[in-house]
Every structure is written in C-alpha cells, then in structure tokens.
Amino acid sequence: MAKRVCYIHVGPHKTGSSAIQWFLKEHRAELYKQGYFVPESGTVHGGHHPIARKLCDREVPEHQRSAAAKFAAAVTETPCEVVILSSEELDALLRNSNTAATFFNRIEELNLEPKLIFFPRNQSQLINSRYAQVVKAFHCSESFGTFVEASWRSPILGYSRLIELAGAFHAELIARPFTAETVTRGVVPEFLHAIGIDPSQFSVASVRRNESSGPFTVGVARCLSRLTVGPGKQVTWLQAERCKKRLAEYLQEKRLADTGYCGLTNALAMQIEKEWQHQNDAFARQVWDRPWAEVFAVDIGQDFRPNDFEISQPDDFTERRLRQAIHDMRPAMEKIMLDPALAVRAAWNDLHRRAG
C-alpha cells in the first residue's frame, strides 16, 4: 500500500498555531470531504498535543493515554490520502534525538510520509512575544531584561536544526516565514497553501486567535507570580494553567485585557538580529534560496517603543488599576497554589519536562 502524506505542523510557539488549530478543528468535515483527515484533538482548542506527546512516548494525564492508539486506529480506517497533525509542543519535543526517533518510528509504522510544516520568525519579535506568553501563563516572573539575557543566544532560537531533523528522518521540510505581513493577512491562508488547499474557499481563513498580551496583562501576571509563587519555586503545569485561566477571566470581566506588549528597544533588537544574522541567512538561502534580510525585510530594523511597566512607568490611573487587579486576584492565585489536586507529582504535570 502506498504511503499517505502526513503534514506535521510543529510550530513554533507564537507563530499563529492557535489560529491554525482552531481552523482545523472547526473545518474537520469540509477538509475530510477534500481528502484531508484531521484527527480529534483531545483538547478544547484543537491542538493535537496529547497525540504528539504519546507518539513521542511522553507521559500524559490518564484520560489522554489512549490518544495515540485512537489516532492509529483512525488513520487505519480513514479513506483520506492526507493526514494533518498540529502541535507546537513538537518543536521542543523533537529537539531530543531519542524522542525524535521514537516519534518518526511511530509515523513510519503507520505507513505515513512525514512533511514538517514550520513557521520561522525573526528572533527579536519571537523573543518579545514569547516573554509575554510565558509571563501570562505563569511560567516566568523575571523581568524582560533578565529573560532576554538568559535566552537570546539559546540554540532553540536557531532554525538549522529543522533542516537537520528533516534530513535525519527523511521528511520534507516546508518552511513558511512568519512576518508582520503574515500577522496582517493571517497565518491560516499560509498554512492552507502549504498543504495544497486554496484558502479562498473558506470564509474564515484569516481568523486570528490568542493575540499577544499587552503591558497591563503582563504587569499583573508578573506581579502575581512573584507574590504567590516566590523565587526558587516552580509551579506545576496544572497550577499554571488554572492561574492563567482565572486571570484571563478576571481581565475580560473587568474589561482590562489588552494586547501589544513590547519590551524591546531598537538597540536590543539590533543586537539580537546581529547575533543570529549569519545562521538565519544560511537557513534562508538553503530553504528559500533568498537572504533572510530579504524574506524578513518588514521585521528587520523595525522601530520598537517599549511599554513594559518596568521599563516605561504607567500613568497614575493605570497604576491604580494595576494595584487593584493584583489585590483582587491574589487570594484566588494563592488558593490555586495551595490546592493539592493541582500539585500532583507526575512527569506530565512538570512544566520543564513538558517543554521537552
């Protein structure tokens, strides 16, 4: 039997993955009619994280342990010639060579031909968005400057590893640049083009989900983390998820939710871009046969105006709202941190281990 194609969207984080996953979840039936099988995700928002983790032989909560078996059965039964998986968790998981071997062996056992879809992003914008994400998710309470100092030279921000990964496991790499123009147009049309579908037939192809948080959200979450978690302590995945959800509900209810966080200065962005210039250019020329600076022209040299409250002092009215929000939310956060059901010791509940 000929192998069926399996498009595997691996992220990375902060490149429109939530929008892609929401689209796949909402349009499973239409895609199925066109010969594209999207498995049930096992998550509320559509990401195939339980399937991805089980295919990598990683622990998941008990109610998700049959994810890989259900996926295998569904692949066997579907008449579709194309299978689609989407999980940005794979970006971290597949950095481990043993984990990658386990994953691709399972794909091979299912007689699937892997094609990796990845959206590289200019590192300055990526670091900025990731900081807002990890603070909002209660994974981090350090300042933006400290976060950048610890991460801006990290190998995980490089993209040559994707070329090496694809080559090692005989997978095609389909890379699509995630630029400011992609944000404006929407990432879903880019994804659909990548898997051979005309996006014009879908009226919601430009949907946007999970927009970047703003300075108020970051300021509240960061302060609450410092007050309720404290230095040297690590929250569990369940604790972080519950805190993130509760804070989001509060901010929406009080109409305080905002977007557009920026911690970058022009000088810092230029420093980051210079650090990655050589590696980025080598990647771009190999994958797109064009220099990185040409592909990401709208992002490189962008003018940044930091609005982080620890960098740019908020006005008195905003400062009062910030203090009130922290006062209102602190008891709820402390209650979450004291709930033994959320502090269970398990690999799937460990933030660091879940990151690969």
Q: What characteristics describe this protein?
A:
alpha/beta; 17 helices; 7% strand; 356 residues; globular; Rossmann fold
Kindly describe this structure.
This protein has 356 residues and is α/β, with parallel strands linked by helices. The chain has 2 domains: 4-120 and 159-201, Rossmann fold, CATH 3.40.50; 124-157 and 213-356, no CATH class. 51% of the residues lie in helices and 7% in strands. The protein is built from 17 helices and 5 strands. It has a 5-stranded parallel beta sheet with strand order 2-3-1-4-5, with helices on both faces. Helix 7 (123-136) crosses helix 12 (215-228), helix 12 (215-228) crosses helix 16 and helix 13 (237-253) runs antiparallel to helix 16 (316-338).
By helix and strand content, what is the structural category? Answer: alpha/beta
H/E order of the elements?
A: EHHEHHEHHEHHHEHHHHHHHH
Mean pLDDT: 92
Number of strands: 5
Strand order of the largest sheet: 2-3-1-4-5
Describe this structure in a few short sentences.
The chain is α/β, with parallel strands linked by helices and 356 residues long. Helices cover 51% and strands 7% of the residues.
Write the layout of secondary structure elements.
Layout: E1 4-9, H1 17-26, H2 28-33, E2 36-37, H3 49-55, H4 67-77, E3 82-86, H5 89-93, H6 97-109, E4 112-118, H7 123-136, H8 144-151, H9 160-168, E5 172-175, H10 180-185, H11 187-194, H12 215-228, H13 237-253, H14 266-287, H15 292-295, H16 316-338, H17 351-354
Helix pairs in contact: 7-12, 12-16, 13-16
